[in-house]
Design goal:
78% of the residues lie in helices and 0% in strands. The chain is an all-alpha fold and 228 residues long. It has a single domain, classed as Orthogonal Bundle (MetI-like fold), CATH 1.10.3720. Helix 5 packs antiparallel against helix 8 and helix 10 runs antiparallel to helix 11.
């Protein structure tokens, strides 16, 4: 049996994953488009910064976020002015998930954007389409497969985030404890093996559903592309 706090941890993990994915999607698409189509100095540096969370240990990412968002962090004056408190709240878990999952989102969308024939956009412009028209009538629909793939991968990554989350959000049951943190707490406590195993099974089940959904979206998008 799952305790009430276990259900809260599961729901919070799902909430964090959904919110993080929604918040990151616009910036992820813009960054992917910049890297796919942009030709400028410093592009390599932007690529390095975007992909850095993939190579850094999550604990390092969490510590850097603490230095940025903590009580005495670089953004502390601005957060105090706005009346925002992020550290040790579920919002901090969202921020951690955005940072660690952002490279996966950008990479999937970028690959999809680079596969679009530039001639299609040029032809639409010669026919009178504005940049906005070309974006929403050609670029976005043709890159939808990458958008969906990147979103599902980022959501899955958010569900499994531990290292950065535990530093910036803490591990408070019912408040900031996500599914991985609950598993860790049970696994490190005497007699908690059974509860940890149950939550592991729940985590595996959620991940399998997400991966099936990811594959289903990919097949649907591929069928739609072939039907054009």
């Amino acid at each position: 049996m799952l305790a009430p706090t276990d259900y809260e941890a599961i729901l919070l993990s799902l909430k964090v994953g959904v919110v993080a994915t929604i918040l990151a999607l616009p910036a992820g698409f813009a960054t992917a488009a910049l890297l796919a189509y942009g030709k400028f100095r410093g592009k390599t540096m932007i690529e390095i910064v975007v992909n850095l969370p993939l190579t850094l240990p999550p604990v390092v990412v969490g510590y850097l976020l603490l230095l940025l968002l903590g009580e005495h962090g670089a953004l502390a004056p601005l957060l105090h002015f706005l009346g925002l408190r992020l550290i040790f709240t579920w919002k901090a878990a969202v921020i951690a998930s955005v940072v660690v999952g952002f490279p996966l989102l950008v990479r999937a969308i970028r690959i999809s954007l680079e596969a679009i024939d530039p001639a299609l956009v040029r032809v639409s412009r010669t026919l009178g389409a504005t940049r906005r028209d070309a974006l929403f009538s050609i670029v976005v629909p043709l890159s939808m497969r990458g958008i969906l793939a990147g979103s599902s991968l980022m959501f899955a990554r958010s569900l499994g985030e531990f290292g950065a989350t535990v530093l910036v959000a803490g591990n408070m049951p019912g408040r900031t404890q996500t599914l991985p943190l609950a598993i860790y707490e049970y696994a490190s406590a005497p007699g908690g093996e059974r509860a940890a195993g149950v939550l592991c099974a729940v985590s595996v089940a959620i991940s399998v559903v997400v991966l099936f959904f990811h594959e289903w979206l990919g097949r649907k998008a591929a069928q739609r592309d072939r039907g054009r």
